[in-house]
Structures are given as structure tokens and as C-alpha cells.
Amino acid sequence: MAEGTEASVELGSWGITRWLPSWCPTSQSKLEEAEERMLQPIQSKFSKQFVHISNDKKLWTLVFSGSVESKTPLVLLHGFGGGVGLWAMNLDALSQQRPVYAFDLLGFGQSSRPHFSTDAQEAETQFVESIEEWREKLGLESVILLGHNLGGYLAAAYSLKYPSRVKHLILVEPWGFPGCPEADEQDRSFPVWIKALEVVLSPFNPLAGLRLAGPLGPGLVQIVRPDFKKKYSAMFNDNTVTEYIYHLNVQNPSGETAFKNMTISYGWAKRPMLQRVGLIHSDIPITVIYGSRSSIDGHSGNSIKEMRPNSHVELIAIRGAGHYVFADQPEDFNHRVKRTGQSASVNLYVFACRSAACITTACPSPEPRFAHCSRGSGPYRRRLGRQLWQPVLNLKESEVGAPIRAQEVDDSTRKQMEGNAEDLQTLSHGAPEWFQR
What's the confidence (pLDDT) of residue 20? Predict the structure, then answer.
């Protein structure tokens, strides 16, 4: 869809279209300036570009590569109403270890704001396909995918459809995982005035009031969300953050409308992810990060763990953090994500020799590889079937070479292994120095 056409998408059910830009003190250039101020404190070198995808759409992208281009890249997906600028306190730290990509989701920020389907499943597909086209255009073979809020939901949906492209899935305070509770339970959960307000506001987009406020909008953001200014106070002592949030959310509400169409009353997802997360490929490790003070659902992580008994699921609660974990406790958040990324790319899988008795090397891939065994008459290398690997995270130095029992190998697999004796070149490539000895 062409740029000029994108600008005329209706505001949800209101049918208010062309007069909003003149009513709200905003413009594309003001959004660009607000984002520029958000990114100004960043010390690392990075590039900014539009990545063009199908139907004339484009996704606004920040790229931090530095000297770590060979590492698996980390891709950041922001939440509802967000944009790349909200990662300002994380980008320097996270990009020290590996390439980092952050982009405005389709329908948000500086990315194209096209018309989305009113069908929840189709709208979700539009988001997911835009992510895949973006990855393909940038030539990224596989990624560590991190999503916050709506971004977490879309990261999980992407992992379901394109599992071979995801090395590790990191869900940060994800939206849309639990289903809507039973009517009786929901009635007990909310006071009467909230239920009445829901009935009145349900036809409208979530942030329609901000646009309706017109010139009062910037002040309204500061009144309604003064916490954002506090979260980023280490970087800014003015209204930089609230101005950025304002300009993000008074443009054409394309992604906002899509989100509205993906929800039912009280913001529950029409297609809860917990009903599908068990179908994500078992080889993909999942890390769920919550803020200890968040009011958002904190039980989905345990549910994911129960649904995936044979897969790695790690639950992390960051003390003193609310829903915006990455801004509330950025140092702790950055440390946890960097540690998770290290585990994902270095030593996720340990392989046993065909005797199922010893382990002497680890591999960063779940695919069958060659493992070195020093038992018997001398070293030999054999190709191992998938049933022999075991996922191991945060492998300690003392555990390297420790025996790990694996299941027995049947005769047909043993014969296949006998016929595959190839040299092992770089099985432990990228591992810590102590691991490569």
C-alpha cells in the first residue's frame, strides 16, 4: 500500500480520518525528532534504515553490529504503543556481546501503518509475515528473538511458524498468553465502575482518547503516565520520554486497530497463546522474564514450563521491576538477557558417544553432530542420532566432560553411526576458552 494511502486509515470505529493530524500537535517529522532525542545518549555506533518488505511497506530498523557480527543476532520486538526508542537503556549493553536489531513493528512507530484485517488470526499473520520478510531482507539466518508485551505474543507466534529461524525465545512480560477467565470469575475480579467503563469504551481503540484530547494530549501523557519520566530519569531530566510516547501514539492508529481486533473485553486475547505455545518446537529454549512488581499476569511462565516438560524453560523474576522491566531495572535486565543469549549460542546441547557413557564436548546446535570419545582403544568420531542429545544450559566448567546417561541406541542407528566417521572441525567454536581446551 502506498504511503499516501496508508495515511487515511480510519480510527477504529470512529470514522475520524483526515482531521486528526491538524487537531493533534504532531507530525512525522516531530516523531522523528522525538526518537532522535531518545537515542542521543547511546554511545555505541549504529545505523538506521527502512527495510522494505512487500506491498510498499517498510519497517524502521536500528542495527548495532560492531565487532561481533559472527554471533547470533538478538532481535528486539517492542510492545503495544511502543517503539525502538524505548530500548534506549538497553542497546549499549546488549550490543557489546552480539549484533542487536530493533525495529518498529508494522503499524507502529516510524514503520508503515497499513490497513490490517479485522480478523484476529489474519491480523496476527500480517504481523508475523512482516517479521519474516524483514528477516529475509536482512539475510539473518537465525536469531535470538526477544519480545515485550505484544512483541512477546508476536515473537511466540513467529516461533510457531518459523521454528528454524529462532535459536532462543525470550518473552518479557508477554501479553495475550492466558485465556479470558470464566464470566463468573471475571465478574468478581472487577468493580462495577470498571465494567461500566468497559461497556462504554469497548467500541473504540485503546488510545483514542489521547488523539481526541488534541492539543491537550502531550500534557495528558504526563498526567496519566508520570512513571515513564521517572523510569528514564537516569538518561533524561526533561519531557523527552513522554513526548516520544505521545508522538508514537497519535499518528494513524494502524497497529493499534490491529491490536484492538485481536482482543476481547478487558484486553484478553481472542487467540490466547497458552493454547498454542506447547506446539513451539521442543528444540527452542524459552526464557520468560517478569517484573516482581508487575500487575500483569505472572503465571503464564509456570504454565509454559508445565506444557514443555522435555524442553528448556527458564523463569526469571527481576526484583523491583514492573511491567516495563527493561526500563525499571535496566542493569539487571541487560545482565539476564546477555547471560541467556550466551547460553543459547554457546553450549545448549551436550552429546554422548555411542556407548552412552561419557561426554567430552558440547555443541551449540540441536542438529546431529560428531562427538569425540576417548574411551576404548582410542579417540573416534561418530555421527549421533537426535535421540542422544540432551539440552544443557549454563554449563559450568566443572561439568565439562562429566558423564551424562543417554538412552540406548537401537541396532539400525548403531549401524548408521558406524558408517559416518568424519573429522570434527569446530564443534566448540564460539565457546569460552575453558571449554575449548
Answer: 52
Give percent of the chain with pLDDT exceeding 70: 67
Helix (H, G, I), strand (E, B) or coil at 372: strand
Phi, psi dihedrals of residue 151, rounded to the nearest 5° = -60, -35
Q: What is the CATH number of domain 3-346?
A: 3.40.50.1820
- Residues 58, 198: Cα–Cα separation, whole Å: 34
Pairing between β-strand 58-64 and β-strand 47-52 as defined by DSSP bridges: antiparallel
Q: What are phi and psi of 294, to 5 degrees?
A: -75, 145
Length of the chain: 437
Residue 333 near residue 326, CB atoms below 8 Å: yes
**In this predicted structure, what is the pLDDT of residue 22?**
63
Tracing cell 552412552 back to the chain, one arrives at: 356
pLDDT of residue 346: 40
Query: How far is residue 124's CA from residue 40's CA, in Å, rounded to a whole number?
Result: 33
Sequence letter at residue 190: F
Q: Where in the chain is the domain with CATH 3.40.50.1820?
A: 3-346
Segments of 197-322 assigned E as strands: 286-291, 313-318
φ/ψ bin of 267: left (φ > 0), alpha (ψ from -120 to 50), beta (otherwise): left
User: Which of 203-207, 280-284, 405-409 has the weakest average pLDDT?
Assistant: 405-409
368-410 pLDDT, tens digit each? 333 333 333 333 233 333 333 333 333 333 333 333 333 333 4
Query: Minimal CA–CA distance to 361: which of 387, 382, 337?
Result: 382
CA distance 277 to 256: 24
Beta bridge partners of 148: 172
